[in-house]
Amino acid sequence: MLTLKRLWRHRSGRVGLVLALLVVLAALVGPAWLGIDPLAQDLAVRLQGPSQAHWLGTDDLGRDVLARIVSGARISLGVGAASVMLSLGLGVAIGLVAGMVGKRTDEALMRLMDIWMAFPGLLLAILLVAIAGPGLESAVVAIALVNVPVYARLVRASVLTIVRQEFVEAARAVGASPVAIALGHVLPNCLGPVWVQATLGFATAVLETAALSFLGLGAQPPAPEWGAMLNQARPYIREAPWTVTFPGLALMIVVLGFNLLGDALRDLFDPRTRKA
């Protein structure tokens, strides 16, 4: 509760929190509130501009753009959350083992992470999806695997600092097992930076999902995913600019909101910038 109050007092944190909550709320209750099938086609009103009947206009198949954006929020947030949880779990496990086990294991795992990070993230994700086959499931796994080294190195750096603290030495002195020390003493004390990175990584995952879908490797038609919507609307960017503008704005709001939220959390967890 204290952290939430501090977050609300932080200017960018407040803006980011409001934007993130609005997107989550739209994803949860928006489709039911609108009551419009995002897949329903009506060629009689295709490429119709914003109106009372269709607040954000219609696309080339007469589908309501607002209904598709709101339904697409569920896809984008779901993929972002799933990929972050997967990469977070793998990265934390690797970083914890690297920092706790020993020098040889640490060296081997970190060199593997270095090789992993040498590949451009989006290109590696495209390669993995191309191997596994297009689809949201492949996109989730690819995006998660691309971001594993970030969490692994972050956790490993924190662990190397924490294992030298007196409370860890005290736990060893009373006979605590290495697993108990790692899970009970070390891991809880290195999660602050991890949550910050997870918040920033969520925005990156949503953006990477849209990029893969835009290239035809993520969500497949007729799924109302924002990147896929942008791809489908490319031929009509001059004739019907709303079909590109509004999905792009939705993507921008999500990325901006979670980036601002992550920056604010970083300030709160950093003792050099944290205020009472």
Characterize this entry briefly:
With 276 residues, this protein is mainly α.
Topology, element by element:
Layout: H1 2-9, H2 11-34, H3 65-100, H4 103-118, H5 121-132, H6 136-162, H7 166-173, H8 178-189, H9 191-214, H10 226-233, H11 242-269
Describe this protein's structure:
Helices cover 74% and strands 0% of the residues. It is an all-alpha fold. It has one domain (62-269): Orthogonal Bundle (MetI-like fold). The longest helix has 36 residues, at 65-100.
User: Which structural class do the helices and strands define?
Assistant: mainly alpha
Structure summary, number of beta strands:
0
Q: What is the radius of gyration?
A: 22 Å
Query: What is the general shape?
Result: elongated
CATH topology: MetI-like fold
Q: Report low-confidence residues grouped into runs of 5 or more.
A: none
**Terminal residue distance:** 14 Å
User: How many discrete domains?
Assistant: 1
- Helix content class: over 70%
Count of helical stretches: 11
Order of helices and strands: HHHHHHHHHHH
Level-1 CATH class name? Mainly Alpha
Looking at the overall shape, the CATH architecture is: Orthogonal Bundle
